[in-house]
From TrEMBL:
It comes from the Eukaryota. It is found in: Membrane. Keywords: Membrane, Transmembrane, Transmembrane helix. PROSITE patterns: MFS. One of its GO terms (molecular function) is transmembrane transporter activity. The chain crosses the membrane at residues 31-49, 69-86, 98-117, 123-145, 157-178, 184-206, 262-281, 301-322, 343-364, 370-388, 400-420, 440-459. The lineage of its organism: Eukaryota, Fungi, Dikarya, Basidiomycota, Agaricomycotina. This is Major facilitator superfamily (MFS) profile domain-containing protein. It is a multi-pass membrane protein. It holds the Pfam family MFS_1.
Amino acid sequence: MTDQNVLVVDWDGPDDPQNPKNWPRAKKWRATIIVSLFTFITPVSSSMLAPAAPHIAEELGIHGTVERALVVSVFVLAFAFGPLLLGPLSELYGRVRVIQLSNLFFLAWNLGCGFAQTKEEIIVFRFFAGLGGSSPLSVGGGVLSDVWRAEERGAAIAIYSLMPLLGPVIAPVTGAWVAERTTWRWVFWSTSIFTCFVQALGLIFLRETFEPVLLARKANRIRKEIVAGGSVNVVERDPRSPTQHILHALVRPFALFAYEPIVQLMGVYMAFVYGIFYLYLTVIPSIFEGETYHESVGIAGLHYIAFGLGVSLASQINARMLDRIYVYFKNRNEGKGEPEFRLPSMVPGTILLPAGLIITGWAAQKAVHWIVVDIGLFLVGGGMILNFQCIQTYVIDAFTLHAASGLAAVSFLRSLAGFGFPLFAPSMYAALGVGWGDTLLAFVAIIVGCPAPWIFWYYGKKIRSKSRYAHKT
């Protein structure tokens, strides 16, 4: 209490159990797993219909190659725009409320896709489903930033960041068998059923984590307890009006992208990696169903498993290493942690990705045994997830309070790439062949990706010290 009878609302000391960072470990992991499930289901929906695309095209009269690819990739286009709104809104109204409501929006439109009767309907329905489904990709990272301290959040983020890559890898395997044995409409209905299950878990177990929202609720509780006409005023720490809050929050992702080199360079590289990811999701069936390997839709879909194994194995190794590496360098830095301590395990990712691209492309071009192609896919998947996890963890550590806006800014470019790459892939491979096409991608991956971790390892702290939004150590 001050001389002016103003009570400043804050946590009741550093060990306040209401502070999400002081939650029991089991409660933190419960929030992590549920958010990861939300982050899993929407990417599953983005690619599960890829093997069923020929059936959809035949029934709905979709004849052009670009139009057929658009049915799959328009969902990812919505991923670019949704987080720009939903990420900042989560920093105003709370993470959980935004995740739950946007997931219901996704559920409604995804269910509607199963009833689409024209190509226009399915494209529009897919876009709106993607808007709703995009929130966990940015807001979920904010939840992990809220509940985990820097030295312990690496393993949690490793699991969370695995989902957007593992989901689309598993989905085509399932989608291929669903399309072969039932109807393509069950691709949408089955994902909607699973979404209902995840939504129920969230309603029961997921609790709000964002500190300013929790403190605002605490202030409201105190206000109600004060006798009307009393001499005590309850004041939140941020005196801005609701309109100022909303405008500032909505502009923040654009400001981060415009002025933050961390977001710019990491965003460009993640966009390239994500673009290759969705390009491969559409290319794998054509490689194995074509004239070289002559496999059925169901068997060709099994090659996604090699991709998924690379993603899963590298993710599990990195989950164990991220925090160990962080703590090791923190101890060598007089106990001071730095976001840059997340970058060392990105280095092998920048090497594995181009190596896998070259192996996959030339093995397929020369009609080598399919196991060699799968080895290349395994390396591509491993390289992707290492880059993906390290970049996400670095952005979250660098923009802790505004992690959702930081991830939204990074997600914007990556989702545009995920939308665009599959559209130009047929033309590129038709002109260059799979071998030279993948070699071109590998060359760009080396030029853009290999310098990135070293640049921020040596200059990241200096860059953050001049930032308006980044965490300064």
